Amino acid sequence: MPITKSAKKAAKRSLVFYARNKEFKLRMKMEMKKFIKRIQKWESLTIQDLSNIYKVIDKCAKVGVIKKRNASRKKSRMAKMFSVKK
Asked: What is the pLDDT of residues 45-82, one digit of tens each?
């Protein structure tokens, strides 16, 4: 357990950031899963759907949940699936 006042504050902040990061990552994963399932079902997808996936992934990268290159790799894979579907 933290002893000093600053260590207590750091532990508290750590929990807050953990919850925030988990929420962002879960949202990103769920959106990606929905997108992939729609592709596999051959549902009609638009550029707007791809744009929404990009938006979620970029937000995670901006906040620091995932790194920049990881985000670009995920976006590339989504775009590749989207283009193959057409």
From this structure: 899 999 999 999 999 999 999 999 999 999 999 999 99
Q: Measure the CA–CA gap between 36 and 26, rounded to whole angstroms.
A: 15
The residues, any chain, with a CB within 8 Å of residue 68's CB and separated by 6 or more, are: 61
Specify if 76 maps to a domain: yes
For residue 63, the enclosing domain spans: 24-85
CA distances from 78 to 25, 43, 51, 61 (A): 16, 15, 10, 16
Q: Which residues have a Cβ under 8 Å from the Cβ of 22 and sit 6 or more positions away?
A: none
Residue 70 within any structural domain of the chain: yes
Nearest to 77, CA basis, from 47, 45, 36: 36
How many domains, the chain?
1
